[in-house]
Amino acid sequence: MNRARLTVPILAALVIAAIAAFVVATNGGATKTPSASASASASSSSVSLEHTSLGSVLVDVNGRTLYLFEGDRPNVTLSAAGRAIWPPFTAKAKPAAKAGVNAALIGMIPGSGGAGQVTYNGHPLYYYVGDQQTGQTTGQGLNQFGARWYVLSAAGQAITSPATAASGSATAGYGY
Predict the structure, then answer these.
(1) Cβ count near 98 (within 10 Å)
(2) CB under 8 Å to 82, separation ≥6 — which residues?
(3) Is residue 43 within 8 Å of residue 156, measured between CB atoms?
C-alpha cells in the first residue's frame, strides 16, 4: 500500500517533466518557442518593447515576452526542470537595444558553449513556454520554482500587476 502511494506522485512528476521536455524539444527549432538551449546570433538578437495589456514590456527579436524571476540570486542557477519551463534568453553577444530600450541596461552572464544569458538591469531574462504567440504574457505573476515571475518595463523593473484575459493568460488561480 505504501509503495502505491509513493509511485503515483513520482509517476505524475515524471509525466509532467516528460511533457515539458517534449514541448521544449519539439518547438526548439521554431522562432516562436525557444528551447532551453536556444541562442541567437549577435546579428539577429535584440531587445525591444511590445505593448501588451500589462503595458510596454521587454521582448526579443521575435516579439517573445521576456521575464525576470524574483528568486534569482548571484551564483545560483535555476534547476534543469525550471529551465525546461522557463528557458533562459541566451545570445553569443550582447543583443542590440531597439527603440525605447536602454542599451546600457543590457548585459550578459557568461555561459557554456559560447552563449551567455542576457540580463536587463541586472535581471537574468527568461522565456515562458506557455507563451505561444508574440506579446503573450501567460507567465505573468506565476509562483513557480520558489518565487514569482514578472515581465519587465523599459526601466528594467518588474511589472507586478496581474495578467488580464486580454494578455492571453489562462493561469489565473494556478501556481499561487
Answers:
(1) 14
(2) 144, 145
(3) no
CA distances from 41 to 6, 12, 34, 140, 168 (A): 45, 37, 14, 27, 29
pLDDT tens readout for residues 92-144? 999 999 999 999 999 999 987 889 999 999 999 999 999 999 989 999 999 99
Alpha-carbon gap, residue 131 to 139, rounded angstroms: 7
Residue ranges per domain, the chain?
2-167
| Nearest Cα to Cα of residue 75 among 121, 109, 120 | 109
Which grid cell is 43?
546579428
Burial of 144 (0-12, 13-18, 19+ CB in 10 A): middle
Predicted TM-score (pTM) of this structure:
0.72
Count CA within 13 A, CB hemisphere, residue 124. Answer: 22
